[in-house]
Amino acid sequence: MSSLTARITRVIAMFLVLGSHALAQPEWRALPNAPVTQNRMDDVHFINPTTGWLVSNASCGGECDSYTGVWHTTDGGASWVLQFKASEYLRSVGFLDSLRGWVGTVFDDDRVLYTTTDGGQTWALVSNLPPSHPLGVCGISIVNDSVMYASGRFFGPPRVAKTTNRGTTWTTMDLSAHAGALVDCYFFSKDSGFVVGSNNGDYASGMTRILFTSDGGTNWVTRHAGTRLGELCWKIQFLTPSLGYVSIEGFSGGPTYYLKTTDGGVTWNDQLFMGSAYDVQGIGFASDSLGWLGGWGGDTYETSDGGSTWHLAGFGYILNRFRFLSPTLAYAVGQTVFKYSVDSIPAFWKMQVSGTIEALSAVCFSDANSGTAVGEVGTIRRTTNGGLNWVGQSSGTAVDLNGVSFVNPDHGMVVGDGGTILHTTNGGLNWASQTSGTGMDLNAVSLSSASLGWAVGNGGTLLRTTNGGLNWTAQTSGTANPLFALSFTDASAGTAVGGGGTILRTTNGGATWAPQTSGTLSELRGVSFTHSDTGTVVGLEGTILRTTNGGVAWSAQSSQLSDEILAVSFKNSAAGLAVGRYGILLRTTDGGTHWNAHSSGTSVQFRGVDFADGQTATIVGPDGTILRSTGLGVCPQAIESGDVNASGQITSADVIYMVNFTFKSGPEPLPIAESGDVNCDHTLTSADIIRLVNYVFKSGAEPCDVCALP
What we know:
Blueprint: H1 3-22, E1 27-30, E2 40-46, E3 52-57, E4 69-73, E5 81-84, E6 90-95, E7 101-105, E8 113-116, E9 124-125, E10 139-142, E11 148-152, E12 159-163, E13 171-174, E14 181-187, E15 193-198, E16 208-213, E17 221-225, E18 231-238, E19 244-250, E20 256-261, E21 269-274, E22 283-285, E23 291-293, E24 299-303, E25 311-317, E26 321-326, E27 329-333, E28 337-341, E29 350-351, E30 360-365, E31 371-375, E32 380-383, E33 391-392, E34 401-406, E35 412-416, E36 420-424, E37 432-434, E38 442-447, E39 453-457, E40 462-465, E41 473-474, E42 483-488, E43 494-498, E44 503-506, E45 514-516, E46 524-529, E47 535-539, E48 544-547, E49 555-556, E50 565-570, E51 576-580, E52 585-588, E53 596-597, E54 608-611, E55 617-620, E56 626-629, E57 639-640, H2 652-664, H3 686-698, E58 705-706
Antiparallel strand pairs: 1-28, 2-3, 3-4, 4-5, 6-7, 7-8, 8-9, 10-11, 11-12, 12-13, 14-15, 15-16, 16-17, 18-19, 19-20, 20-21, 22-23, 23-24, 24-25, 26-27, 27-28, 29-56, 30-31, 31-32, 32-33, 34-35, 35-36, 36-37, 38-39, 39-40, 40-41, 42-43, 43-44, 44-45, 46-47, 47-48, 48-49, 50-51, 51-52, 52-53, ...
Helix pairs in contact: 1-2, 1-3, 2-3
């Protein structure tokens, strides 16, 4: 081995041994390829850092339940496979090893537990439970390769099932003498452990209960009996044999608490989380000082001082379960999957600093760098460098601004409430008010040139200008329904959409508008055409419609959702994005034949989207939210990974570059971050460095070919 090779190898070894602990700090990140459900993922279980299962539930039935079932990963969450679809609501999951596992249900008394003996390839109902079995399984505790406990249910009856021989036989326990409802359980050993719940199954009158057994469930003692009405112990976590936590779901409307023990559960003490009501369920601590709470309340909260103070964590929505494998590795599930680790998970959607807390309603980029976002209280934000910086512009109004359109970096228009129309010819350095001739709220604007444009609004309002807005003329829409969006591909062909399933079409620049048959009464909120004949419409109740003949016929496409989809943007006939409520982010690369849900890492209601060039997209929403992503298009050709410094060859310099990026916050691999994904596992970690070292110095396997990941 050459001296250079030896030196590089020693440096890498040092970073691999020390760097991930001394330099890299674990973070919570949304897994970009994880499933996204309309309802909630209730539980997740890993048998090692890479192999795990989760249970997911939808709420809208029909095609919308495609994410309902058991999902499996073997690569630490980089990819997931749906193994099993069930009709029951799936609440819990646990595996003894890579083959034997169980999934618990919660609302079907006769179908409470499924099992697999082949790692989830096939599942069957457990048929040998005693008659006194739990009528729902809310919690599963895996003790070793033979022993499992299952507890439930959250509204009673309070029962526990136990196997000590991998499910060959079962014993059950009725704990009605101690509690009225059970949720979660945690066992230190085959004999000693806890179950948590309440004294009865009624939400309003229930009080928290924690029960303990040291003889495998033959005898139980009460370790905590709450005195506040309307509370239920939900999830339990032990960080060490002495240090443990229990979340409390409250129904009384008072302050919100959780429980903590420092003596192995002998005593439990109330910890104030919030002075008001918040529906807490999931709880997870990485240390005595650092922890998180989530649940049906919505957002996730974090403490870094042992619970003295709490603040928004900036990730997760309706989280129900945290699973810690170590203080630096954990998974959490809610509407999608989050991973706590030092891994560099590619952040395909990055939050940008908008400089405002006002809700943003629309965004338009005239090229990859020049963009404008508009929103409430007259807000206008402008970027000329792809969102690295957003600056405020003076609109001269305090009304809500709802739509924006630019034909080039200089010429643009903005519309808003009360018939507001603003115009700029210098990229927003100055905005001039124009006379619209209406007092109706205007919701959208579309320009086909610096002089020719259209605007739509409430009451079926349709306006047109042919001189850059010096004059606006009303056009006959033939409807009183509100119009929310419109799209023009040239000076002649345009489409407007609105309430009651309204679709209007013009082929003569708006001189006349004709209604089209949408096939739905749902409110339509967004439209995007890339050709005079080819377009997509989105709306409430998960509606997506597609035409390839200018709207002569519209066909429904499956979004697998039932919530509001509020905006859509295509930049060619194949690649498009749709966004909406609860952080909905749908992507298609085949014109909508398939729409795939992607994790945005947030749960806010997205209001606007612009797919600037088929590769770069920007999304806006409440509280000044701006998300930006690059590399979203279909890759025209594969990119060779490994040449991370873009020198044209793969050498030891690339190894050093990757070490600096991974462990010392150095620059990202070039030309795209995915160039560093040498082993193509959708993450950038030390494993990529090892493969690169083997290739450069030991004639190991070549780096794989990558493209911008979805």
